[in-house]
Amino acid sequence: MPCEFPRVSVSNWTGSPKFAGPSYRKALQELTEAINKGEVAAIVGQPGTGKTTLLRVLASLVQNHVFMDMANKERLADEFWDKFDPKARSKEILEMLLPERRKFGYGLLSRLLGRKFEDHLLRVCDKYDDPRLRLYCNKYTRDFDGMLRALKDYSAVFGKPVLLVDEVRETHSQEILRFVNSGVGVPLVFSMPTEAYSKVTDLAIRRRIEESRVSLDYILTEEDIREILDSYCPDFSAELTDLVIPLWKGKEIVTVHQLLNYARMELENAKKECGDNECIKRRLIENNIFKDVDNLIKTVESTLRSGLAKVEGVTYVHQRGKRAETSDGKSVIVDLFFLTEEGAYVGDVRIFAGLPSLDPDVEALAKILEIEHEKAKRPVKGRFLITNYPLKVEGAITVYLETHELIRVSKGDSEVVLAKLLNALGLGSEAKGQTKAQGAELSA
Fold it and tell me: Residue 19 class from Cβ within 10 Å (0-12 exposed, 13-18 middle, 19+ buried)?
């Protein structure tokens, strides 16, 4: 079965978005319950987290709805009147009114004059107080008040519709609150970007949103990822999941859009080198740098040692782990040790395929105050931890490597990790062989 990854966000994609993942099914259940209770619900999340997909799924489940997209729209009522047309159900309304034609003044004389009932109704629009007649005539003002009147009449005749409103911004929030407080009683589900929500300053509006909020930020779980990839690309979902999970655990992938975009690019790159599915699977597996974390750590260490040896001002680079003593008399091993004229630098490399954990050697970095080299004590000027998680270690600088940077290192690119380390330690401008422009870039 061919993979169907969107090349743009679901908001702009003409295809059918897939719906998968227990977290999203739970969110859908919460929204459905709010609709059944006639309540208001807000979907809040960063772009690409699945807000539009949830609204589209709701639209497929709720027959009686109005879908409104507020992207680049200033007023709620303008979009409503673009999408809502009472005349669309005029035939049904006519059938309702026909048995009561005498009530609306349509009698023998009208028939003798050859006047059609539907034409007669248009002549008496303002004469009778009946929601069916108002809907049939469709003489509502195209503003907010007209929208409320139309929804009230529509609800009385056909039952309450559900308003599904996408891309609500802080500029629309006053209209949303006015709608909620109008008493029209129509269920409303709207999506709002997290950034827009953060800009809402009206406490009444924030309280209403908070009461009904379904947050999609950081909603993704490992099971969600597996199901989503399986729905879009069942033939390679297992291999793609293994590639994505480490990036998700390192918070490099936090939205569905990022997930699908990364998976699509990895698959396309594999297809360029392969002509059959088995080859593609092998290539995807080979691209998983976390399948052998120990070897990846050794590669990072080796890359740094060879790179540091070429840095001007570095007088010595130890070619293996170095034993050091802490201030409280304990013995630890540091992965990296090098000297400059000003002092010693010690650090560890920790790459995680799963959840991170700090070991005693890393936590002891802060307690290494001096280190012995050639029978002399050298003061420690800097301590560092190189890792693929944004960890904080007391007394040490964290040099964070993103997964795409680790991929570059695994393929022999030593510059990215060396540049990051030099910048973090304030040694970036001293690299040998660099042009002035490169040196300026490293020290920036």
Answer: middle
